[in-house]
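Annual report, structural modelling task.

Input specification for the calcium ion complex:
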Amino acid sequence: SSQFYEKSMSSSSKEELMIENDIHKALKNNELSLHYQPQLDIKTRKIIGAEILVRWKHPTKGYIGPAKFIPIAEESGIIIKLEEWIFDRALQEIKVLSEQMHGFMLDHIAINLSTIHFLQPHFVEKFMLLVKKYQIKPEWINLELTESGVMRNVEDAVQKIKELKAFGFSFSIDDFGTGYSSLSYLKELPVDIIKIDQSFIINMHKDQGDATIVETVVAIGQKFKLKVLAEGVENSDVLKHLTYMKCDYYQGHYAHKPMPFDDFVALIKT
Ligand code: C2E
Ligand code: CA
Ligand code: CA
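The model returned the following structure:
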C-alpha cells in the first residue's frame, strides 16, 4: 500500500521494495536461470554432483546476485513463489540430465532450500507432487539447509528432514560454522553432509586460525559419521590442505565456476 512510499523511507528499503516488485516480473518474464557448480571427491578428483545456484538477468540492471535478492525475497515472503519456480525448473533439468547420461551417474544434485519455504505446513506434500511430476528418484536430490535457518525451528525441521529422508532424499547443512548454533543440535539433525562455509576455506592456506577451524569441523564430521564438503576452494594450496585433513568433497573456482545447464551436461559427458 501507499504508506510504504513515505518520504522517510530509507533508500535501502526503497531498493528492497523495487527488487521485490522486480522478482514478480522476473518470474513472469523468464529472467531467471539455474547454474550448476560441480562438487568433487577430494581423493579421486572426480565430479560427484553439483549445486544449483539461481541466476537473475535483470532487464535494465544486468545480473543481480542471489546473495542480494534471496534475503529480500525471504523477508517479503516471495521466496516461496521464487523457489516454486526454482524447484520446478531444477527437477525438470535433473530429469533431462538423467536421460542424457543414460541413468543418473552422479551422487546427487544439490538444491538450496530456504527454511522459510521448508517450514511451510505443506512443504513435503508439495515437493513430493513435483518429484512425481518429473519422475525424479529422491536419491538424486540433496537439499541444502542453512545452519541458522534450521535453528529457527529445530523440531519442525528435524521432523521434515526425517520424513523426506525416508523417501530417499539426502540433506546438507550449509554455511556450517557461521551461526551461533551449538554443537548439541548436530546429534539431533539427521543430515548427511556438512558444508564448511567458504569464509573459513578461502584463506585457510594463509590463516592458521581458519585452518584449525576447518580441521576441527572435519574431525566433528568424522565423529558424527557425516561427509564434509568444503566450499570456496580457490587454489591448489587449499586443496592440498583439505586432502591432508581427509575432507571428503569440495567445490570452488579452482575446479569449476557455476555454469549453465548445457555446459554442465557437456562437462559430465566428456
Ligand atoms: P551458498 O549456498 O553458500 O553458495 C555458495 C556461493 O559461493 C555461490 O554464490 C557460489 O557461486 C560461490 N562460490 C562458489 N565457489 C566459489 C569460490 O571458489 N570462491 C568464491 N569467492 N565464491 C565461490 P552465489 O551463486 O552468488 O550464491 C550466493 C548465495 O545465495 C548462496 O550461498 C545461497 O545462500 C543463495 N542462493 C543461491 N541460489 C539459491 C537458490 O536457488 N535458493 C536459495 N534459497 N538460495 C540460493
Ligand atoms: Ca548452498
Ligand atoms: Ca556458504
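Residues 31 and 59 are 8 Å apart (CA to CA).
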